[in-house]
Specification:
This protein has twelve helices and ten strands. With 289 residues, the chain is of the alpha/beta class. Strand 1 and strand 2 form a beta hairpin.
Length: 289
């Protein structure tokens, strides 16, 4: 399944004293099966763009196409978009409201009018996917759980709709280091199982680790697009936009500044380890002996 944004512009409160254009003339295609990272400084339009992908916001100008069909065209079934494109907001645990975990996770499927048996099946399936298939947990109040578990419950509620595309707005924000890593590994696992992932992130290390493609936004427009290794070859441009580069890129820059030959396309930890091992074998290590 493919989502395409054609010349999409969105203006909040048009015609009022508070009019503000969040995104301008955005053209973007989300390809089936990819892991796309949306990056940019705060206020650049990433979250607004994300809400257009599943039809939560309607463009002021332009079109959003789902497999070639305009999702805002008269007669198009919006429920189809919401089922196929799941949106997980930043701090989604703040939106939990039901008495039990099972009821919260099953809220979306219940609204689809599905039979109780299928709802129960989807709830268990979603809880299994997020690693919360503990005995008795489904009947607990979600507010009795840890912060990381609450976020997993919120994500399970989206997964219970069985989306083909998962859009996540800073999914690891505010989590402790272990919960953060668990969340990122969960998202990576969902992607490996065939879910298309669109992830908003401020962490360039996470983008380097997981994304197959990155889109950089500035002042509501797309200014750079490509594989992470292509994006991170422009550290000066990213710095000008208030963005960072992965820690490994910084290490490479320091080594080159010291006169040590180091490839410029290294941006993942495993690549750095191999490069340093190669340097050591090529003479740096022998000199120390």
């Amino acid at each position: 399944m493919q989502v395409t944004l054609e010349h999409v512009t969105h203006t909040y409160q048009p015609g009022s004293p508070f009019q503000a254009t969040a995104i301008r003339n955005v053209n973007l295609t989300i390809r089936s099966g990819e892991f796309l990272a949306l990056i940019g400084h705060t206020g650049c339009g990433k979250s607004t763009l994300a809400q257009h992908i599943n039809g939560l916001l309607k463009p002021t100008e332009g079109r959003v196409l789902l497999d070639g069909q305009d999702i805002h065209q008269k007669g198009f079934n919006k429920k189809e978009v919401r089922q196929k494109v799941g949106l997980v907001f930043q701090y989604p645990e703040h939106q939990l409201f039901e008495e039990t975990v099972a009821k919260d996770v099953g809220f979306g499927p219940k609204n689809l009018g599905l039979p109780e048996g299928e709802i129960a099946q989807r709830v268990q399936e979603a809880l299994d996917k997020v690693g919360l298939s503990l005995p008795g947990l489904a009947e607990k109040s979600p507010f009795e759980l840890s912060g990381g578990q609450m976020r997993r419950v919120a994500m399970a509620g989206v997964l219970a709709m069985r989306p083909e595309i998962l859009v996540l707005d800073e999914p690891a924000a505010g989590l402790d280091p272990q919960s953060r890593e668990d969340m990122l590994q969960l998202i990576s696992s969902l992607h490996r199982q065939g879910t298309t992932v669109v992830m908003i992130s401020h962490s360039m290390d996470d983008v380097a680790r997981f994304a197959s493609r990155a889109v950089v936004m500035e002042h509501g427009t797309v200014v750079m697009e490509g594989a992470p290794e292509e994006i991170f070859r422009h550290p000066e441009e990213l710095e000008r936009m208030g963005l960072d580069v992965p820690s490994v890129c910084k290490l490479g820059m320091r080594l080159r500044a010291m006169g040590i030959e180091c490839p410029q396309d290294i941006f993942r930890e495993e690549q750095a380890e191999l490069a340093l091992l190669s340097l050591w074998k090529g003479g740096a290590g022998h000199g120390a002996e």
